[in-house]
Every structure is written in C-alpha cells, then in structure tokens.
Design brief:
The protein has helices spanning 83-97, 100-116, 131-139, 159-170, 191-204, 216-226, 230-236, 256-262, 271-276, 284-289, 309-324, 332-339, 341-347, 378-384, 412-425, and strands at residues 2-12, 22-31, 34-38, 49-52, 56-60, 62-67, 119-126, 142-149, 177-183, 208-212, 244-248, 266-269, 294-296, 362-366, 391-396, 399-403, 406-407. It has 428 residues and is α/β, with parallel strands linked by helices. Strands 1, 2, 3, 4, 5, 14, 15, 16 and 17 form a nine-stranded mixed sheet that branches. A four-stranded parallel sheet has the order 6-7-8-9, with helices on both faces. The longest helix is centred in the N-terminal third of the chain and has 17 residues, at 100-116.
C-alpha cells in the first residue's frame, strides 16, 4: 500500500550531525513498511492513500525503551511506598494472583495509551509468556520482548529461560517482534545465573535487558554481600560481553560510568518512575558527556502511573536543569534524540528517524491546538508544551493504526471491560 503524507512539517535528522534536527515542510512517501521517498516520488509509486499535512507535524514514532506493559492494571494501586516495600509487599503479591490472560489485556491497555501518545515501539520485560507478544501481534505496534529471568545457579534447563527461547521461536515470523534475554536485576539473579544468561546470549546472538543501580538499598546490599556495585557485578558476570540495555542506572558510583561507556552499554532513564519511588535521578548529563547512548522509557504503570513518553520527555528536559542548576544541561534536541533515534540504536531497529529506507513508524501531531500554538520552536514544544494528546494519526510498519484519534486495531471498550473485571477479581 502506498501512503503519501503531503506538505507536512516534519522533523528530519541533521545533515552534519543527526541530532541537529531539521524542521521543514516535506512530502513523505510510504511503500509497504518503508519510507520510500522524501519530497521525491519513487518510481512506480502507487498513491493509495493521501494524508493532508496542513497544520500537522510528522515525527519519528517515539520509542519507549523500558516498560512492563502488563503492569497497567496496577496503576494507582502501589503509591507512596519505599522501593523495596513497593516491589515486594505490593507489586509481587499482585503479580502472584495474576492469570496469564490478565497480562494480555493489561498489555493492550498500555498499548492503547502508548499509541494515543505517539509511541510506536516499546521494550517490554514481561512475566506471562506469549501474552504481550499476542497483544502486539494484534495491535500493530512494534515491540522488543524480554521474559523476566531470575535464579541463582548456572542452569541451562531453567524453566524461565526455556520459556523465553520457546517464545522467540514461536513468534519468529512476526516482523514487528524481536527479542532479548531479560535477567531481572542483580538482587534477583545470582552471579552464576547471570553468567549462564550471558553465555546463552552470546551463543544465540541475543542482547540483554536488565535493571541496574536503581536504588540506594540495592547499592548498599550489593556492596555488603559482594563488595562491588551492581555495575561491577554485571561486568564480572559477563553481562557486558553482549549488547546490553540497562534500565535506570540512577545510583551510579565512582567508576561505573566509565565501565558503561567502555563496554557500550545503553542506558534507559525513567525519570517519573525514579522520582516517584524516591530513587533519585540518573546522571544523564554525565552519561552523555562520557559518550553513553541514553534512551528514554516510562517503566511500568505500577511505578509511573502512565505510559506517556511526552510526559517523560518533559521530565527529562527539566529535572537535570534543576539538579545541575543550569538551563543548558539537557536540551530539547538531546531529549528528542533519547526518545527516538537513541532508542532505535539501543534496540538495533531500523526506526527512530525520518529517512528514506527506514521503517515507516511515524506519529502525526496536530499543530492547530492550544498547546502547540504559536508554532515557534517545535522541537522545544515537544518537550516543554505537548502532552501527547496532540497525536492525531499513527503509522507503524507502514500501516495506519490510529487515524483522527480513532484506533484501528484495538477494541478499546472490550479492553476497558476486561480490565475492570480483572481488577475486581485481583482486589485492586
């Protein structure tokens, strides 16, 4: 199918440096799942659909680089608690009562919120096998899936690992799905278990997704039990021998940033979640200065209460200005990069920017709304003014999944009804 987005403002990567974004009026041609041309009509192009770009801004679809989509039904049910109480006294018991199908409906609820706020890809750590993948196959979103892994010993027959590998095989033909191994965290994975996961990842050419250095309690316990930081712990276990995406990295100690930079570890900052749980702020300016690829994520709705990347961009653009007491600390261009191209690099996806040959994952925003008026600095508007409701149309893999705010692939009312039933049963 050929789609034309005609005469719309669009954010394209810079000529000299990708993060020097260029904003101008362009016509974008989409053939099948790819951006086939910008301003120049491809040879033999079939114009099946035309989208009028008047008063519209086209951006690369946002990439939520760390979340737990099945947690959406825990929204507003685990609040104002210390991190360990939040995790072990509130979230774990709810997870223990969940049925596999609950995760399917909860993931669809998250995906509704993500699509409606311009997110086209999410990186998910799940617990119920096949449920998020089934939801993604139906919603039309793009996702990178990790089955959460926990254990102590070097056990190639570990049931969760086996489930993860079986899921990868079962869904290998869905082009919008890819997979990583997801050891949960140093405090739930022993060094031998992490070594085993690292070995399997190397053998199978897989990346790893892990929570690292999220709280001071984690740091203190790791130093007491192992005499090192969580970053050093992961390094010793061989985790950094493969491509790694590390969520949080809030409580980094002396030397940790150098390790992350040296080993090419991608860091996902989750500002709202980290603030809400009282864990602090990732040292994003220092990570960027060291050359670390910094991405942006929401984390799950149990700790964020939202799956809205615009909200997250606003936090990222502001908090470091306050903590470092300088307005030049983290700028709008760096934030937008973190929410788009940096996430694509970390997840090794052909998305994240509007360029010929990239996957056609795009969000089209209205400019004729109060939050975007006047149309002065649109890059700044995305970080400081927009809240995601400006998202009008979303295209993923060359297919329209939302148009004029109407979802095309998900029965919203059915999802809401199922979630209400589930929450009553779970006592939420």
């Amino acid at each position: 199918m050929g789609i034309v987005i005609r005469d719309a403002l669009a954010i394209l990567p810079g000529v000299q440096a990708a993060e020097d974004f260029q904003i101008g009026k362009h016509t974008i041609y989409i053939t099948d799942d790819l951006i086939a041309g910008i301003d120049q009509k491809p040879e033999g192009f079939s114009e099946d659909r035309v989208i009028d770009g008047k008063d519209r801004l086209v951006i690369p679809g946002l990439i939520n680089a760390h979340t737990h989509s099945y947690m959406s039904m825990m929204r507003n049910s685990a609040d104002d608690l210390s991190f360990m109480d939040w995790l072990f006294k509130r979230v774990d018991p709810i997870e223990g009562r969940m049925e596999p199908e609950d995760a399917y409906w909860a993931s669809l609820l998250s995906q509704i919120e993500m699509i409606r706020s311009g997110t086209t890809t999410f990186h998910d750590m799940q617990m119920h096998i096949h449920q998020t993948t089934k939801a993604v196959s139906q919603s039309g979103m793009r996702a990178v899936i990790c089955r959460g892994l926990v254990g102590d010993s070097y056990d190639r027959e570990d049931v969760r690992l086996r489930q993860a590998l079986e899921e990868m095989e079962a869904w290998k033909d869905c082009g919008r799905l890819s997979f990583r191994l997801g050891p949960h965290a140093p405090y739930t994975c022993g060094p031998d278990y992490l070594r085993m996961v690292a070995d399997v990842a190397k053998e199978k050419g897989l990346g790893i997704h892990i929570h690292l250095s999220e709280s001071m309690t984690e740091i203190e316990n790791m130093k007491k039990d192992h005499g090192c930081t969580p970053i050093e712990y992961a390094l010793r276990a061989g985790i950094f021998d493969v491509p790694v995406i590390a969520a949080h990295c809030v409580q980094l100690q002396e030397g940790d940033i150098s390790i992350l930079a040296e080993h090419g570890v991608n860091v996902v900052t989750n500002p709202a979640s980290n603030m809400k749980l009282g864990n602090g702020f990732a040292p994003v300016p220092e990570l960027l200065a060291a050359g670390v690829n910094v991405c942006l994520g929401t984390d799950g709705a149990a700790s964020n209460n939202a799956q809205n990347m615009f909200r997250e961009m606003g936090h990222l653009a502001l908090i470091h200005k306050g903590t470092h007491r300088t307005p030049q600390c983290v700028g709008a261009a760096q934030v937008f990069e973190a929410a788009t191209a940096a996430g694509a690099r970390a997840l090794q996806l052909n998305t994240g920017s509007i360029e010929t040959g990239r996957k056609a994952d795009l969000a089209i925003l209205r400019l004729d709304v109060a939050s975007m008026m006047p149309n002065n600095n649109l890059l700044a508007a995305l970080c400081y003014s927009a809240d995601g409701s400006e998202t009008d149309t979303v295209i993923i893999d060359g297919k329209i999944v939302m148009e004029n705010r109407e979802l095309k692939t998900i029965d919203e009312e059915m999802v809401y009804a199922k979630v209400r039933e589930m929450c009553v049963r779970l006592g939420l």
